[in-house]
Amino acid sequence: MAEQIPFWNVSRASGIIAYLLLWLSVVWGLLITNKMSQSFGALAVVDLHEFVSLLGLAFALVHVAVLLGVRYIQYTPLQIVVPFTSWNYEPFWVGLGQIAFYLLIPVTFSFYVRRWIGYNAWRWIHYGSFITYSLVTVHSLLAGTDTKTLAMFLMYAATGAVVFFLTLYRVFTMAGTRTA
Length: 180
Hints:
The chain is mainly alpha-helical. The chain has one domain (2-80, 87-179). Helices cover 76% and strands 0% of the residues. It contains seven helices and no strands. Helix 2 (42-66) packs antiparallel against helix 4 (91-109). The mean pLDDT is 89.
Protein backbone atom coordinates (compact mmCIF):
# COMPACT_ATOMS: atom_id res chain seq x y z
CA MET A 1 0.00 0.00 0.00
CA ALA A 2 2.80 2.44 0.83
CA GLU A 3 4.22 2.26 -2.69
CA GLN A 4 0.79 3.31 -4.01
CA ILE A 5 0.64 6.55 -2.03
CA PRO A 6 2.83 8.57 -4.44
CA PHE A 7 0.61 7.61 -7.40
CA TRP A 8 -2.51 8.48 -5.46
CA ASN A 9 -1.09 11.79 -4.25
CA VAL A 10 0.09 12.77 -7.74
CA SER A 11 -3.35 11.95 -9.13
CA ARG A 12 -5.10 13.98 -6.43
CA ALA A 13 -2.74 16.94 -6.75
CA SER A 14 -2.81 16.97 -10.56
CA GLY A 15 -6.62 16.76 -10.48
CA ILE A 16 -6.84 19.76 -8.18
CA ILE A 17 -4.33 21.70 -10.29
CA ALA A 18 -6.21 20.77 -13.48
CA TYR A 19 -9.45 21.99 -11.90
CA LEU A 20 -7.89 25.30 -10.86
CA LEU A 21 -6.33 25.81 -14.30
CA LEU A 22 -9.66 25.06 -15.99
CA TRP A 23 -11.32 27.52 -13.62
CA LEU A 24 -8.69 30.14 -14.38
CA SER A 25 -9.14 29.56 -18.10
CA VAL A 26 -12.91 29.99 -17.83
CA VAL A 27 -12.45 33.11 -15.72
CA TRP A 28 -9.97 34.60 -18.20
CA GLY A 29 -12.32 33.76 -21.06
CA LEU A 30 -15.18 35.49 -19.28
CA LEU A 31 -12.99 38.50 -18.48
CA ILE A 32 -12.08 38.73 -22.17
CA THR A 33 -15.70 38.59 -23.34
CA ASN A 34 -16.85 40.89 -20.53
CA LYS A 35 -14.22 43.44 -21.62
CA MET A 36 -12.87 43.47 -18.05
CA SER A 37 -9.40 42.43 -19.16
CA GLN A 38 -8.65 45.35 -21.47
CA SER A 39 -6.30 47.02 -19.01
CA PHE A 40 -3.99 43.96 -19.15
CA GLY A 41 -3.54 44.10 -22.92
CA ALA A 42 -5.73 42.05 -25.23
CA LEU A 43 -3.00 39.83 -26.69
CA ALA A 44 -1.43 39.03 -23.32
CA VAL A 45 -4.79 38.00 -21.88
CA VAL A 46 -5.69 35.84 -24.88
CA ASP A 47 -2.26 34.19 -24.80
CA LEU A 48 -2.58 33.55 -21.06
CA HIS A 49 -6.07 32.11 -21.60
CA GLU A 50 -4.74 29.76 -24.28
CA PHE A 51 -1.68 28.73 -22.23
CA VAL A 52 -3.68 28.07 -19.07
CA SER A 53 -6.14 25.96 -21.08
CA LEU A 54 -3.35 23.80 -22.51
CA LEU A 55 -1.72 23.46 -19.11
CA GLY A 56 -5.05 22.45 -17.56
CA LEU A 57 -5.52 19.79 -20.22
CA ALA A 58 -2.00 18.48 -19.55
CA PHE A 59 -2.63 18.25 -15.79
CA ALA A 60 -5.96 16.50 -16.44
CA LEU A 61 -4.10 13.95 -18.57
CA VAL A 62 -1.59 13.38 -15.74
CA HIS A 63 -4.49 13.04 -13.28
CA VAL A 64 -5.97 10.27 -15.40
CA ALA A 65 -2.78 8.47 -16.47
CA VAL A 66 -1.35 8.21 -12.96
CA LEU A 67 -4.47 6.36 -11.80
CA LEU A 68 -3.20 3.32 -13.70
CA GLY A 69 -0.45 3.05 -11.08
CA VAL A 70 -2.86 2.94 -8.14
CA ARG A 71 -3.31 -0.78 -7.51
CA TYR A 72 -5.96 -0.61 -4.80
CA ILE A 73 -8.43 0.95 -7.25
CA GLN A 74 -7.19 -1.30 -10.05
CA TYR A 75 -8.31 0.74 -13.03
CA THR A 76 -7.74 -0.88 -16.38
CA PRO A 77 -6.80 1.15 -19.46
CA LEU A 78 -10.32 0.51 -20.78
CA GLN A 79 -11.84 1.96 -17.60
CA ILE A 80 -9.60 4.99 -17.91
CA VAL A 81 -10.69 5.62 -21.50
CA VAL A 82 -14.38 4.60 -21.57
CA PRO A 83 -16.78 6.70 -19.47
CA PHE A 84 -18.95 5.01 -16.84
CA THR A 85 -16.94 1.75 -16.81
CA SER A 86 -14.96 2.42 -13.64
CA TRP A 87 -17.03 0.16 -11.41
CA ASN A 88 -14.15 0.15 -8.91
CA TYR A 89 -14.98 3.65 -7.67
CA GLU A 90 -17.94 6.01 -8.22
CA PRO A 91 -18.66 5.02 -11.85
CA PHE A 92 -21.18 7.78 -12.57
CA TRP A 93 -19.19 10.68 -11.12
CA VAL A 94 -15.94 9.42 -12.61
CA GLY A 95 -17.75 9.01 -15.95
CA LEU A 96 -18.82 12.65 -15.84
CA GLY A 97 -15.18 13.60 -15.35
CA GLN A 98 -14.19 11.48 -18.33
CA ILE A 99 -16.82 13.15 -20.51
CA ALA A 100 -15.60 16.54 -19.31
CA PHE A 101 -12.07 15.59 -20.33
CA TYR A 102 -13.25 14.62 -23.82
CA LEU A 103 -15.18 17.88 -24.14
CA LEU A 104 -12.17 19.85 -22.96
CA ILE A 105 -10.07 18.63 -25.90
CA PRO A 106 -12.01 20.34 -28.74
CA VAL A 107 -12.63 23.45 -26.62
CA THR A 108 -8.91 23.78 -25.91
CA PHE A 109 -7.70 23.06 -29.43
CA SER A 110 -10.33 25.26 -31.07
CA PHE A 111 -7.82 28.09 -30.61
CA TYR A 112 -5.81 26.59 -33.44
CA VAL A 113 -8.62 26.02 -35.96
CA ARG A 114 -10.62 29.19 -35.46
CA ARG A 115 -9.62 30.76 -38.76
CA TRP A 116 -10.67 27.62 -40.69
CA ILE A 117 -13.96 26.91 -38.92
CA GLY A 118 -15.04 30.54 -38.59
CA TYR A 119 -15.88 32.67 -35.59
CA ASN A 120 -19.44 31.37 -35.09
CA ALA A 121 -18.42 27.69 -35.04
CA TRP A 122 -15.48 28.51 -32.78
CA ARG A 123 -17.79 30.39 -30.43
CA TRP A 124 -20.24 27.48 -30.23
CA ILE A 125 -17.41 25.09 -29.48
CA HIS A 126 -16.16 27.48 -26.82
CA TYR A 127 -19.59 27.53 -25.18
CA GLY A 128 -18.70 23.94 -24.35
CA SER A 129 -16.34 25.31 -21.73
CA PHE A 130 -19.36 26.04 -19.52
CA ILE A 131 -20.52 22.43 -19.81
CA THR A 132 -16.99 21.17 -19.27
CA TYR A 133 -16.44 23.35 -16.22
CA SER A 134 -19.79 22.27 -14.75
CA LEU A 135 -19.05 18.58 -15.31
CA VAL A 136 -15.57 18.89 -13.84
CA THR A 137 -16.97 20.67 -10.80
CA VAL A 138 -19.59 17.96 -10.23
CA HIS A 139 -16.95 15.26 -10.79
CA SER A 140 -14.63 16.96 -8.30
CA LEU A 141 -17.31 17.43 -5.68
CA LEU A 142 -18.74 13.93 -5.87
CA ALA A 143 -15.78 11.75 -6.84
CA GLY A 144 -12.98 13.78 -5.27
CA THR A 145 -11.71 12.24 -2.07
CA ASP A 146 -10.55 15.64 -0.77
CA THR A 147 -13.96 17.30 -1.06
CA LYS A 148 -14.78 16.24 2.48
CA THR A 149 -12.22 18.72 3.80
CA LEU A 150 -13.53 22.20 4.51
CA ALA A 151 -10.72 23.89 2.57
CA MET A 152 -11.49 21.97 -0.63
CA PHE A 153 -15.22 22.45 -0.31
CA LEU A 154 -14.72 26.19 0.18
CA MET A 155 -12.38 26.28 -2.83
CA TYR A 156 -15.06 24.68 -5.02
CA ALA A 157 -17.71 27.03 -3.63
CA ALA A 158 -15.57 30.14 -4.19
CA THR A 159 -14.44 29.19 -7.70
CA GLY A 160 -17.96 28.21 -8.68
CA ALA A 161 -19.32 31.50 -7.35
CA VAL A 162 -16.79 33.50 -9.37
CA VAL A 163 -17.73 31.70 -12.60
CA PHE A 164 -21.44 32.01 -11.80
CA PHE A 165 -21.28 35.77 -11.20
CA LEU A 166 -19.01 36.48 -14.18
CA THR A 167 -21.39 34.47 -16.36
CA LEU A 168 -24.39 36.39 -15.04
CA TYR A 169 -22.56 39.64 -15.70
CA ARG A 170 -21.82 38.53 -19.25
CA VAL A 171 -25.42 37.46 -19.91
CA PHE A 172 -26.86 40.70 -18.57
CA THR A 173 -24.35 42.95 -20.34
CA MET A 174 -24.90 41.11 -23.62
CA ALA A 175 -28.66 41.44 -23.24
CA GLY A 176 -28.20 45.17 -22.63
CA THR A 177 -26.09 45.65 -25.76
CA ARG A 178 -28.54 43.72 -27.97
CA THR A 179 -31.53 45.80 -26.92
CA ALA A 180 -29.73 49.12 -27.13
